[in-house]
Write a structure and sequence with these properties.
This protein is an alpha/beta fold. It is built from 7 helices and 10 strands. It has a single domain, classed as Rossmann fold (3-Layer(aba) Sandwich), CATH 3.40.50. α6 links the parallel β9 and β10. It is globular.
C-alpha cells in the first residue's frame, strides 16, 4: 500500500481497491454537504468581500442519492480503519443526520460532536432566519483504546484558566473561515476551493487522535489541508480527490 500520495479518482473505488483493510489510524472526511444549486452571490459585501455560495456539480444530489452515497463512502472508510482508529466527519446541519445514522448502523460510538463557531461567518441575505455561524465535526470510534493525546491538546489550547494554567480543550472551537495568506486563491482573487478547512482545525484533530508515523487518510482531499498538516507533524498521509485542479493545488502546497 502506498502512502504520502494523493489518488486522482473516486474515493469509494480507491478505498475498496488500493487501501489495505484495517490499515488506517485516523480518517478526516470533509464530504459534500449537498448544498449547491441556487448560485447565490453577494458582490460588494462590506463585512468579508464578495461572497459566493457553493455551487459545484459534486455537491448536487437528490436526498435518496445523497443517503446512498453517504452509506457507500462511510462503509468503505470503515473497511480500512483500524479497530482502534478514529473517524472525524465535517458537516453542517444539512448533512449531519445522514452521517450520524450511517455511523450508528455500522456500530460506531460518537465520542464528540465538535461545534465550529465561525467567528467571521457570512451574513444571511434573506434577513428571514438566524445567521448560520456554525458547522460541526463528528468524532466517532468503533472499539476501545482509541488514541487521544489529552496533554498535547491542553498545551495547544488557546484558552487558559483564569490563573494562566493550561485548560482542557472543549468541543466548541472558535476559529474563522479561512482567509488571508492561508486562503488559496487564483489570479482573479477568488478562492480556488469553496470549502477549504482551517489548518488549525486539522492540527487539533491530527494531534489529538494520531501519533508520529501513523497513517492519516482524507477521502475528499480537496485543497490538501489534511495532507499538509499530517506531513508537518510527521504522520504518513493518503489523500483521494476526483478533481484534477484540486490535486494541482495540493501538490503545489505540499512542495
Amino acid at each position: 500500500m502506498k502512502t504520502n500520495i494523493i489518488y486522482n479518482d473516486d474515493c469509494i473505488k480507491i478505498l475498496n481497491s488500493k487501501i489495505d483493510e484495517k490499515s488506517i489510524d485516523l480518517i478526516f472526511a470533509d464530504p459534500p454537504y449537498n448544498l449547491s444549486g441556487n448560485g447565490l452571490k453577494w458582490k460588494g459585501n462590506k463585512t468579508g468581500g464578495d461572497w459566493y455560495m457553493v455551487d459545484e456539480a459534486w455537491d448536487k444530489m437528490t436526498a435518496p442519492e445523497f443517503l446512498k452515497f453517504t452509506r457507500q463512502w462511510i462503509g468503505a472508510c470503515d473497511k480500512v480503519l483500524k479497530d482502534k482508529g478514529s473517524i472525524y466527519i465535517a458537516c453542517s446541519y444539512h448533512n449531519i443526520g445522514e452521517s450520524m445514522m450511517v455511523l450508528k448502523q455500522l456500530g460506531y460510538k460518537i465520542n464528540n460532536i465538535i461545534t465550529w463557531y465561525k467567528t467571521n461567518a457570512m451574513p444571511n441575505m434573506t434577513k428571514r432566519i438566524f445567521t448560520h455561524s456554525t458547522e460541526f465535526v463528528i468524532w466517532a470510534v468503533k472499539d476501545s483504546g482509541w488514541a487521544f493525546n489529552y496533554e498535547t491538546l491542553k498545551e495547544i489550547n488557546p484558552e487558559k484558566q483564569k490563573n494562566g494554567d493550561l485548560k482542557q480543550m472543549r468541543d466548541f472551537w472558535q476559529m474563522p473561515l479561512v482567509q488571508g495568506k492561508e486562503r488559496i486563491r487564483g489570479s482573479d482573487g477568488k478562492a480556488l476551493h469553496p470549502t477549504q478547512k482551517p489548518e488549525e482545525m486539522l492540527k487539533r484533530i491530527i494531534l489529538a487522535s494520531s501519533n508520529k508515523g501513523d497513517i492519516v487518510l482524507d477521502p475528499f482531499s480537496g485543497s490538501g489541508t489534511t495532507a499538509y498538516i499530517a506531513k508537518k507533524y510527521e504522520r504518513q498521509w493518503i489523500g483521494i480527490e476526483k478533481d484534477k485542479n484540486y490535486i494541482k493545488i495540493s501538490t503545489t502546497r505540499l512542495r
